[in-house]
Every structure is written in structure tokens, then in C-alpha cells.
């Protein structure tokens, strides 16, 4: 065993020498570097991360999938960042910013002496260029929606080489959070493809390493189709540690494409990868059992921001030939019916059996993981079949001799819950719900469907009774939730394509969400969002079930491993990660 | 030889009898969840405790041990013993689909539980599910075999006996059937069916689909036998005496085919049980919470379950045992058929 490990270290050392990464540049006078006062580590080595699939692109403006974003995030820098561990905004490429009294004008001061990973200097022209690209309709960036407020774009102008001004058409709460995830682009590399009209094709996976540059801790070294993306140290990166050593510590960061979550686990167990994130609780428990042997670091960060829920089809089915579903909508629209189901669900079992106790039960859309925004006053009633039966009785339902639930017209209550067959946790929830609701005399069928087939039914054909789905997980702020809770939002799942709020409470909810978006004061905003959460919990457009903990693991040799509940869970501090062990010390530094 | 056949037949009959009376041999209702006992390992039976040896086996209560803040393993609580009793009264079940009974072969007094093969994610008794799931899986295998052989031999006899364009057309269709990628075809077909089908309808659909897909190969074999026996001298002689087609088929040709069909049947049954498992594995089979060997095994698609809870492999073992018994029987039949024809 020792021999193998020794051989492995020799190989690693040889590999590191063979593919020598660029040494970090010494700090130059006039460079306004960001000093991370509590970070220490040492240089060298390469860290491998297993990914479920290949990234689709390296273009930060057009990327939509999580895997691409995870890689791109390590290559690119933002003006203002959300610190994943404090969930608060922090200066990044902008060293400071001022907000005008009316909340409509942001003036950002850029760091001086910054360079892209190819050595080209970065200034206000790059910022203006980047925002023009993001807001260009022809480029069709998924981030564009964030930058268009009330149909009007944010106006970006350069005041001097290191000062940029953003003017918003109206006040926008927590607008500085928008800057996180908007990568600053190198004008000198991308201006030509942009003006030639083929920006979307720029920076595909086949881009040569010399043709791509960013302000992130790493830069592209190699892409091997179907196997891996290799990133190497950006020698000009703008952060230094406590001893004024320029970050990142790692010589290389390797993304290995492994296929599935199970493959991720197996590679990690075999020591081929160093970090796994987005672990399911089953796999987490599996790794925990082997922990004493492997010594790996496992982290349960507590409940995340995702919320899983049971959704009833309340869509307007006029014009669609779905008589069977339409016939059941009378039950689904009945608040007492939904309340009864809400009361009959054994959420503790969901937490125990689905999340292996690594999760939390939910009664509203904001879970305990979101400490800034959760409404602590909402009640958390325990499961009660008795009160559920009372609710049904008062709603005109009855039971026949066989214990079957009948509606006021004597029809037996029977419906189908669809779930995605690729999500074993939600399939388990469906089986538990099926059993819980059988105690009310409801005949519930759980049907797993291929993910796309399920999405098609929920968003397009509306041919379903009920579904178990999950949302959230982006940012802790209420603004990303706008598209769920406003009546014309694209994820207003229970009733899509509404032309106006269907009920009084939906109208109030809509107003609250719009109001919180333009309220700048946190306390006032919290009050509005608290009321919104209360309305949601009382009227149950979704029946909330649970939220999984954020679980991640790393091998013993990874230093500064501090996973967070916000995406990207583990690699947000890739610049601070380092490898322990004497064999690797100074391996890449000459 | 004769004893081997007898032993195999007795074993197979025993297996089917146990499955047929699953409700009696299973101590619990296969769909009842014991949420406090999720993934409990098989209950160990003891004969000896602190006070000495016992004639009747007994089980200890099992409790969950907490490790830190998460649930760890199960441990036996030696302060609580539950003696295993036979012919106990338990949950009411239907036997043979008609007879209501609440007598079970064995069980322990409440609140104790006996899980011979452990439990699944929801704390459902794996042994009870194995038996009740076996009912569906094996019945589907046998029913599908009957359909295949009926259809396959009909086609084979018609093609082989009449020959000419009928033979060509039928064998053309036969080749088409052999070359279709069935799994993808079925996944496509499932998308057009209603979301939820009752267990009975799913069962008929499954057996129908498996049975009708498999007809091609037996049809070819039957056709070959018919083709060769059609031109035997005694058949030609009978025809010369004015025997009708029906008489010839019944008197001379079918007996030739019969041995072949019997061998095919014992070969096909385990194959079709496995086919049910494959289809259920892909979500085309019986839906939760009803058990079948296929949907029980489908939880093992998750790596963590596969490596952590070995007892959930029980349906796979049952499948292997059933297959081995059937193929041993098929081999005996086959060699007898061979010695008979030479």
C-alpha cells in the first residue's frame, strides 16, 4: 500500500514537472491586489474534480448549463462577488462602489493594474464592452433578463479609465448581487467576433488556449474531448494571501468527465478525484462509512435553498382535450383538499427516509438554510391524519364502506403523481406520499417519467394531475423567485400563462413580490417577503415537502476546503484550495 | 435420469406452490411500510440466550443506533426477545385470488418484527415482497410462454405445412420481428399509453408484449420440424389414402412438434421471467407499491444501495434459482427428445 502511494507521488511529481505551470508573477507597483487576510497555504500540485458531463461551451455569455458554468466560473472574474460563506457581497474587480440616494445609480471604482490571464490590461472599456454584449438581444444571453428592468436596459457608461457608472431605470433591491456571475470579457479578444456577428460561436470548447483569457484564478490549458478540461494557474490573478503570495495555490485544476453521480462516487473512492459536490444523502452515508479508512473530509453544510414540493395542475385547460384532468381540478382547486393533503404528509419520514436525516422538512418556499429571508413565524404543524379527515369532511367529502374517499358528487378520489425517473429522491417522496394519502382513502398512483417527458407535461401539454418537483438553489435573495410567484412568471407552475392573477391572494402575492423588488431597505423588504411567504403557506399553490442538505466531500490532502450552501458549492474558493503533503511542496514553483 | 427429472419437478412444483400461496408463507403485507425500520438487515434467529438453549428459535428486537447526528446501524436489543411462532394470525390476505385468510406460516408477537430477508428503503418486508413479487414475475413468465408457443406454433405449422407464398410471407414477417430493436420500440410505445395503468392491465400488457415479441424463434423451429415430417413416407401414405389436412396435422405432425414445444416451454419460462425484470427495470413494468422481482431490483440501479444493502439482491438470487431449475429440466427434456428420435 505504501509502495503504491509512493509510486503515485512520484508519478504526480513527474507529471507536475513535465507540465510545469506558469509561476505566479511577483506583485508589481501600482497593482491594487485584493489581500485575503485569513488565507494561507502553499503552492503546487493539481487537483482533479469529477464532473457528470462535459461542459457545452466556455463562453460565459451564452452558457446555460451548470457544468459549463462551473468551469467558466474558474476562468472568469466578476466586478462584485457574493461571498459563498457569508452570503454577502464583496468587492472583486471593483474595489468599491457607491449607490445614489434614490437607488438608481451605481458608481464602481475598478482596481488598477489588473491584467487578463494573457497579460493584457483590464479597464473600464472592457466593462462597458462586456455589458453591451450581455444586453445585446442578438447574442441572446440568459443573463440578459436580469439587466432589463421594466423593459428598459441598464445604462452603462465609462467615467474614466477606472470608473464605471450604471444607471437603472428604477430602484432595484440588492442590485449589486446582479454583478456576481457576470464575467468581465476581454475586449481585445472578443470585439472582432462580436462585430462580425458570430459572438455565440466564439469560445467553444475547441478554442485554442491563446484565444481565451479571463480574470479568474485559472486559465485554459487543454481540452481533451470526452475526457477532461485542464486549467492552469493564471499568473496575473488579482488576489494574494496573508503572506502576500499571489493566488491560486494550485498549479492545475482538472475537470474529469465521468458521466453519472455514481461514477463520481466510484472515482472519488478510488482516489482518482479530489472533490465531489452535489452528493445525495445515500452516497454521503456511503462515504461516511468509509471515512475512517480513507480519512476524507466530508461536509454537511445544512439545508440548501432548493425546495421540493407537490404541485397540482390548476392550469386553465380550456381548449385542451383533457376532460379527465379537468374533472379532477375541482378537487385540486379546493383549498380544503390541499390543506388536508398538507396535513396528512409525514415530513419527518421524508427527511429520514429520503434524505437519510441530511435534510429538513419544509412548510413554505424558504427553508431554514436561507437565514436572511426565512419567515420564522410560520407554523410547522405535525402530521395529523385526524385533522386532515376533519378538513375533508367539512369540504363535503365522505368515505364509503371500503374506506375510499368520495367527493360530494360520490366520485372516488384518485389521481396520479408524476416525477422524474432520474431523481430517485423525488421518486421515493412519491412512494411515501402514496402511502400517507392512502390513510385518507385517496387512491394515488406514482408514475416516474423521463425528465423531458415530465417537463413537457408540466410546461406544455398540461396533461397531468400532480407532480413532485424542485425549484430554487440559485441565490438567497428573493428576486430570483420573481418568476415563480408573479402571475406572469415563467415558472408560475401551478397556473402558467395567466393573463391576470386568478384569485385575490395571488393578486396580493403579485403586489408583494413587485414591491419587495423596488424596496431598498432590508427590514422593509423582509416584512414584504414574510407576508408573501405567509400567503404561500396558507394558500398552498405548492405543498412543500423538504429540502436536502448541501453535502460535499474532499480527500484528506485538500486544504482550505470550505463548501458553501450556494452554487458553486465547493469550487467557489478554488483560488484558495491547496494540496497538503511534503511531496507536493513547491512542486510547480521554480 | 428418471430420479433427476422427479427431483427437478418436485423442486419446481414446490417453488411454484410457495409462490402461489405467497400470502400464507409471507408474514406481512408486502406493501405495508415500517418507516422506523428502513433498510433493516435480515433478522437473525437465535436458539440460545442468557438463560440457556431454547427449542423454538427467537429473534431480538432491533433498534437503530445513532452515530453522531446521523442514523447508523441496527443493533439487537437483548432485553426484548420474540419467539417465532407458527400458524399465527396476521394481516388478512387473499389466497389464490379467491380465498380470504389471515393465517400465516410463521410470525412473531407484536411489537416484534421478523424480517427474514431484511427490509427495503421504506421498511417493507423483503421476504414478503419476494414471494408476492415472484407471483407476478413467474406468472408473467408462464403466461407469456403460453402465448408465444400458441402463436409461434400456429404460425410455424401453417408455414411449414402449406409452404409456398404463405411460408415466404410468414417467414418474412418472422425475420422482421427478429431484427427489431425491441427495447427502444417498447419505450416508445409506453409513451403513448395512459400515465397510470392498473396492476392487472399492466400484467396483461406485459405478458402480451413479451409473449408476442418472442414468437419468431419457436415458429422457425416448429416450421422446420413440420417441413421435415410433412414429407415422411407415412404422412405421404396417409395422404394417399385420402386423409384430410386436419387429420394429418393432428395424427402425425403435432406429436412430432409436441416434444419440441415442451423443451421450448421450459427454456422460455426463465427467459421471460428475466424479460419481465428487464422491462420493470426500465419502468415499463408493474408500478409501486405492488412488488415484482423487476421493480424490486430496479432500486439497485443506485450504486450506494447496491454496495450497502446486500440483502436487496434476494430477487436476483430467486431469479437465478428459478432459471437454473428450469434450464436443468430443459436439458433433461432435450436429451430425452434426442434419444427418442434416434
Describe it.
The complex is a heterodimer of chains A (590) and B (342). Chain A has 590 residues and is an alpha+beta fold. Chain A contains 17 helices and 26 strands. In chain A, strands 15, 16, 17, 18, 21, 22, 23 and 24 form an 8-stranded mixed sheet that branches. A 4-stranded mixed sheet of chain A has the order 2-14-12-11. In chain A, α3 packs parallel to α5 and α11 (347-354) runs antiparallel to α13. Chain A is globular and about 85 Å long. Chain B is 59% helix and 16% strand. Chain B has helices at 2-20, 22-25, 126-162, 164-179, 182-192, 199-213, 216-230, 233-240, 245-281, 293-297, 303-308, 314-341; strands spanning 46-49, 52-67, 70-95, 99-108. The mean pLDDT of chain B is 84. The longest helix of chain B is centred in the middle third of the chain and has 37 residues, at 126-162. By secondary structure, chain B is of the alpha+beta class. Chain B is elongated. Chain B starts with a helix and ends with a helix. In chain B, 35% of the residues are buried. In chain B, a hairpin with a 2-residue loop joins β2 and β3 (70-95). At the A-B interface, α6, α7, α11, α13 and β22 of A face α11 of B.
Amino acid at each position: 500500500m505504501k509502495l503504491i502511494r509512493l509510486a503515485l507521488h512520484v508519478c504526480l511529481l513527474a507529471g507536475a514537472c513535465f507540465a510545469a505551470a506558469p509561476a505566479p508573477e511577483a506583485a508589481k507597483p501600482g497593482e491594487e491586489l485584493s489581500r485575503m487576510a485569513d488565507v494561507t497555504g502553499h503552492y503546487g500540485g493539481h487537483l482533479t474534480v469529477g464532473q457528470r458531463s462535459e461542459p457545452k461551451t466556455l463562453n460565459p455569455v451564452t452558457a446555460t448549463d451548470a457544468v459549463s458554468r462551473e468551469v467558466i466560473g474558474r476562468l472568469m472574474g466578476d466586478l462584485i462577488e457574493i461571498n459563498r460563506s457569508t452570503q454577502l457581497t464583496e468587492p472583486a474587480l471593483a474595489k468599491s462602489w457607491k449607490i445614489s440616494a434614490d437607488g438608481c445609480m451605481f458608481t464602481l471604482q475598478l482596481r488598477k493594474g489588473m491584467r487578463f490571464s494573457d497579460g493584457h490590461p483590464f479597464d473600464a472599456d472592457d466593462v462597458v464592452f462586456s455589458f453591451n454584449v450581455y444586453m445585446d438581444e442578438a447574442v441572446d444571453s440568459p443573463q440578459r433578463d436580469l439587466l432589463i428592468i421594466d423593459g428598459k436596459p441598464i445604462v452603462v457608461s465609462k467615467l474614466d479609465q477606472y470608473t464605471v457608472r450604471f444607471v437603472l431605470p428604477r430602484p432595484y433591491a440588492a442590485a449589486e448581487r446582479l454583478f456576481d456571475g457576470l464575467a468581465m470579457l476581454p475586449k481585445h479578444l472578443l470585439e472582432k467576433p462580436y462585430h462580425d456577428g458570430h459572438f455565440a460561436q466564439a469560445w467553444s470548447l475547441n478554442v485554442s488556449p491563446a484565444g481565451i483569457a479571463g480574470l479568474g484564478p485559472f486559465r485554459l490549458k487543454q481540452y481533451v474531448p470526452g475526457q477532461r478540461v485542464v486549467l492552469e494557474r493564471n499568473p496575473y490573478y488579482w488576489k494574494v494571501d496573508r503572506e502576500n503570495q499571489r493566488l491560486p495555490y494550485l498549479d492545475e485544476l482538472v475537470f474529469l468527465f465521468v458521466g453519472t453521480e455514481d461514477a463520481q462516487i466510484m472515482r472519488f473512492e478510488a482516489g482518482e478525484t479530489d472533490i465531489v459536490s452535489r452528493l445525495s444523502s445515500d452516497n454521503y452515508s456511503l462515504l461516511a462509512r468509509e471515512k475512517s479508512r480513507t480519512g476524507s473530509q466530508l461536509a454537511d453544510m445544512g439545508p440548501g435553498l432548493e425546495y421540493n414540493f407537490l404541485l397540482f395542475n390548476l392550469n386553465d385547460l380550456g381548449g385542451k382535450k383533457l376532460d379527465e384532468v379537468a374533472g379532477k381540478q375541482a378537487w385540486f382547486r379546493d383549498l380544503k383538499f390541499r390543506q388536508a393533503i398538507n396535513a396528512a404528509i409525514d415530513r419527518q419520514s421524508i427527511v429520514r427516509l429520503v434524505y437519510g436525516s441530511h435534510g429538513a422538512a419544509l412548510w413554505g418556499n424558504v427553508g431554514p438554510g436561507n437565514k436572511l429571508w426565512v419567515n420564522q413565524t410560520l407554523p410547522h404543524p405535525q402530521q395529523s391524519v385526524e385533522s386532515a379527515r376533519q378538513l375533508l369532511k367539512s369540504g363535503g367529502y365522505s368515505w364509503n364502506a371500503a374506506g375510499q374517499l368520495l367527493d360530494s358528487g360520490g366520485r372516488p378520489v384518485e389521481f396520479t403523481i408524476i416525477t422524474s425517473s432520474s431523481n430517485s429522491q423525488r421518486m421515493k417522496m412519491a412512494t411515501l406520499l402514496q402511502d400517507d394519502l392512502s390513510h385518507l382513502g385517496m387512491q394515488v398512483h406514482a408514475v416516474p417519467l423521463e425528465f423531458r417527458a415530465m417537463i413537457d407535461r408540466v410546461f406544455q401539454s398540461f396533461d397531468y394531475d400532480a407532480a413532485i418537483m424542485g425549484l430554487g438553489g440559485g441565490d438567497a435573495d428573493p428576486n430570483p423567485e420573481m418568476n415563480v410567484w408573479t402571475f406572469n412568471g415563467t415558472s408560475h407552475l401551478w397556473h402558467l400563462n395567466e393573463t391576470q392573477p386568478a384569485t385575490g391572494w395571488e393578486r396580493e402575492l403579485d403586489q408583494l413580490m413587485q414591491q419587495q423588488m423596488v424596496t431598498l431597505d432590508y427590514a422593509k423588504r423582509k416584512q414584504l417577503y414574510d407576508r408573501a411567504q405567509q400567503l404561500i403557506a396558507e394558500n398552498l399553490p405548492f405543498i412543500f415537502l423538504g429540502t436536502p442538505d448541501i453535502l460535499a466531500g474532499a480527500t484528506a490532502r485538500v486544504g482550505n476546503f470550505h463548501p458553501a450552501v450556494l452554487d458553486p458549492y465547493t469550487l467557489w474558493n478554488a483560488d484558495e484550495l491547496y494540496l497538503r503533503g511534503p511531496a507536493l511542496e513547491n512542486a510547480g514553483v521554480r | 435420469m428418471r430420479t433427476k427429472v422427479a427431483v427437478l419437478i418436485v423442486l419446481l412444483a414446490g417453488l411454484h406452490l410457495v409462490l402461489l400461496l405467497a400470502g400464507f408463507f409471507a408474514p406481512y403485507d408486502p406493501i405495508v411500510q415500517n418507516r422506523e425500520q428502513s433498510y433493516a438487515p435480515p433478522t437473525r434467529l437465535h436458539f440460545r440466550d442468557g438463560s440457556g438453549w431454547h427449542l423454538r428459535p427467537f429473534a431480538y428486537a432491533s433498534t437503530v443506533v445513532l452515530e453522531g447526528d446521523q442514523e447508523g446501524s441496527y443493533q439487537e436489543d437483548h432485553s426484548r426477545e420474540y419467539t417465532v411462532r407458527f400458524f399465527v394470525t396476521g394481516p388478512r390476505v387473499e389466497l389464490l385470488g379467491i380465498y380470504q385468510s389471515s393465517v400465516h406460516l410463521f410470525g412473531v408477537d407484536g411489537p416484534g418484527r421478523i424480517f427474514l430477508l431484511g427490509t427495503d428503503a421504506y421498511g417493507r418486508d423483503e421476504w414478503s415482497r419476494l414471494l408476492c413479487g415472484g407471483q407476478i414475475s413467474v406468472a408473467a413468465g408462464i403466461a407469456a410462454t403460453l402465448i408465444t408457443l400458441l402463436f409461434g406454433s400456429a404460425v410455424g405449422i401453417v408455414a411449414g405445412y402449406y409452404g409456398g407464398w404463405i411460408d415466404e410471407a410468414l417467414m418474412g414477417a418472422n425475420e422482421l420481428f427478429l431484427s427489431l430493436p425491441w427495447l427502444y420500440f417498447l419505450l416508445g410505445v409506453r409513451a403513448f399509453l395512459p400515465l397510470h395503468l392498473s396492476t392487472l392491465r399492466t400484467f396483461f400488457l406485459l405478458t402480451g408484449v413479451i409473449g408476442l415479441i418472442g414468437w419468431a424463434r419457436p415458429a422457425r423451429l416448429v416450421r422446420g420440424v413440420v417441413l421435415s415430417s410433412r414429407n415422411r413416407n407415412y404422412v405421404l401414405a396417409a395422404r394417399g389414402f385420402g386423409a384430410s389436412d386436419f387429420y394429418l396435422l393432428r395424427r402425425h405432425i403435432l406429436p412430432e412438434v409436441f416434444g419440441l414445444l415442451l423443451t421450448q416451454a421450459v427454456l422460455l419460462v426463465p427467459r421471460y421471467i428475466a424479460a419481465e425484470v428487464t422491462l420493470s427495470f426500465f419502468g415499463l413494468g408493474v408500478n409501486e407499491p405492488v412488488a415484482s422481482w423487476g421493480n424490486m431490483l430496479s432500486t439497485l440501479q443506485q450504486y450506494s444501495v447496491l454496495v450497502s444493502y446486500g440483502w436487496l439482491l434476494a430477487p436476483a438470487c430467486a431469479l437465478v434459482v428459478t432459471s437454473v431449475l428450469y434450464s436443468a429440466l430443459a436439458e433433461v427434456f432435450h436429451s430425452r427428445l434426442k434419444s427418442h428420435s434416434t
